[in-house]
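Reading group handout, session on sequence-to-structure problems. Before we discuss, look at one worked example. The prompt was deliberately terse, the way you'd type it at a terminal:

> structure Helix-turn-helix domain-containing protein

The input record follows.
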Amino acid sequence: MQVHEYSGEEFEDIARDSFMPVSFRAGPGFRTGRVAVQEMGEAVTLSRGDSGGPHRMLRTAKSPGDDLLLFMVHLDGEIGVHQNDRFAQLAPGTGVLSESRGPWEIVGSTQSTCMILTFARELLPLRTSEITDSCARGIDPAAPGMQMVSGYLDRLFGMAEHLTAEQRLDAGRAAIDLLAMALRDVQPSVPSGDGSAGVVLEMMRTHVRENLADSGLRVEELARRHHVSVRHVYNLFERIGTTPGAYLREQRLLTARAMLSDPRALRLGISDIADAVGFFGRRTFELAFRREFGMTPGAWRREHLPSDAWTGSRHANCPTS
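And the output record:
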């Protein structure tokens, strides 16, 4: 374990010249600060810091540290994190994620203590958009995922120096996997109050319509993408008298029906249309379409396309002499 103690002026120099440069300014009454660091391997570090007093830390410069993520568990004091036009005021026990590739600011109005897990962005098994959307959103200390990751980090920090290099590597990876789970408890960016459920539902419906071709789209993905539980997803769709699966199937079939009625899509075969709306195969698509509309996709196309569309298609497909 590496332990560093510093004055406000000393930390200003350290922060400016670190592997992830930041601007640090100590406030009135700043006493000696302290940081203890455990190296976990593969650019993963776990540290525990005491700010020493009021301070402001600002990240604006570009540097080789642009692919790092910082997950902070706030332990004591008053502190807030600002990133991506969001501000999270943290209560003790709250967790918050920040990404170094974009500007961020940490403001402490008192002496504060925190635990920080720093690691390469590529190690977190979430999509880029999910990572960015999770930044500067406090994770409730009472959330099960947050309790698991904070308890694990606290225990790991105390015993990391007794682990072998290989064990540290495995333990660091396990911490990041727990963090991925905890981030699913992050609240979505919607207004509070009675209207928030309707906003989340509309966000989900839009996501479904924009991702019909994804044959792997499931209710679990909707829940993870919008930071709610699977049960909550079902409750939201119940408000419009359906289930997530039924809504997805309905939208796929409605989109397929529109394509079958569109002369511009005449060159697409039935299998092509099935793929375009996320069905696993033509047979599955045909059965679902017939069950919904009472005829096969081919019969629908023949009945609903104007005759001149067929003529135009034949001419267009004829080789020129």
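Points for discussion. First: Confidence is low (pLDDT under 50) at residues 187-195, 314-321. Second: The first strand starts at residue 2 and ends at 6.
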